[in-house]
Amino acid sequence: MTTPGTHEFDVLDSELLLEAPIIAVRRDTLAMPGGGSGRREIVEHFGAVAVVAVRGAEIALVRQYRHSVASRLWELPAGLLDIKGEDEISTAQRELAEEAGLAADRWDVLCDLVTSPGFCDETVRVFLARDLHEVERGEAEHEEADMLLEWVPLAEARAMILRGEIINSIAVSGILSAAEVLDGRAEPRGVDTPFPWRPTSLATRRVGPDLKTMP
């Protein structure tokens, strides 16, 4: 028996079970401690970014329908890292313009998340955007055509988390991290900070500028 914390979980076999526009599912067979093996299903994802956009004492929140839970959730402006070769800050700037009609002159990194490590490789980088100004907002489609944008006091957003009204994990993490920074208890990181957690498995199988395009 190996010492706990030292075993190498080597991949003995890997099988692609599903290929869809924004996710894939594979099954890996891993070498387990003690000499056995085990299968683990992994949802592959492009990764994403989200933005806490600050205007005075308020932040921008969107309310968007999410069919997985059949509910409209309070969230941060956010989007997939689904453009080939686009870095995280460029995606964040594009999504803030598309979802909120905003640009920012000051950007920082608040936090990085592995959203569901038990079964999914999705990671998210959350940015802080300040010194805002309005830009042209793109035409929305699908769920985003039904999306609401509201300015909410940061203190109220924190209270909404504790009341169970904001339950999106990315929004919870971003709002609480932003409060730490804006209240002077923490320092953000620069936008050039490496993001080693960004998923690669799904993206490397796709071609063309739009990674959602199936091979």
From TrEMBL:
Keywords: Hydrolase. Residues 192-215 are annotated as: Disordered. InterPro entries: NUDIX_hydrolase-like_dom_sf, NUDIX_hydrolase_dom. This is NUDIX domain-containing protein. Transmembrane segments: none annotated. Pfam families: NUDIX. Residues 44-174 form the Nudix hydrolase domain. It comes from the Bacteria.
